Amino acid sequence: MKKPNVVSYPAIFDNQNNEGYYTVTFPDIPDTVSQGKTLEEAIHEAPDAIAIALPDYEKYPHSSDIQQIQAKNPDKIVRMVSVNMNAKM
């Protein structure tokens, strides 16, 4: 089965205990992390983290429901991050 060109995953943006930086984690892509000095920078950098991590997967992970991720992380910013894998490779 062909891997999709465009993928979207929920990301958690957390600036607690990070000296003001935003750390970005992806619950569906373990060990994939990004960061930014500001929320805007973290949002900008997040697709690159996905693009670097996913080629190692034989099959891309299923994307979780963003509402469930937000419910598990009520004190953090959760948003979908999309990336065109063809454009990043």
From TrEMBL:
<dbReference type="InterPro" id="IPR031807">
    <property type="entry name" value="HicB-like"/>
</dbReference>
<dbReference type="Pfam" id="PF15919">
    <property type="entry name" value="HicB_lk_antitox"/>
</dbReference>
<dbReference type="InterPro" id="IPR051404">
    <property type="entry name" value="TA_system_antitoxin"/>
</dbReference>
<dbReference type="InterPro" id="IPR035069">
    <property type="entry name" value="TTHA1013/TTHA0281-like"/>
</dbReference>
<feature type="domain" description="HicB-like antitoxin of toxin-antitoxin system">
    <location>
        <begin position="9"/>
        <end position="86"/>
    </location>
</feature>
<protein>
    <recommendedName>
        <fullName>HicB-like antitoxin of toxin-antitoxin system domain-containing protein</fullName>
    </recommendedName>
</protein>
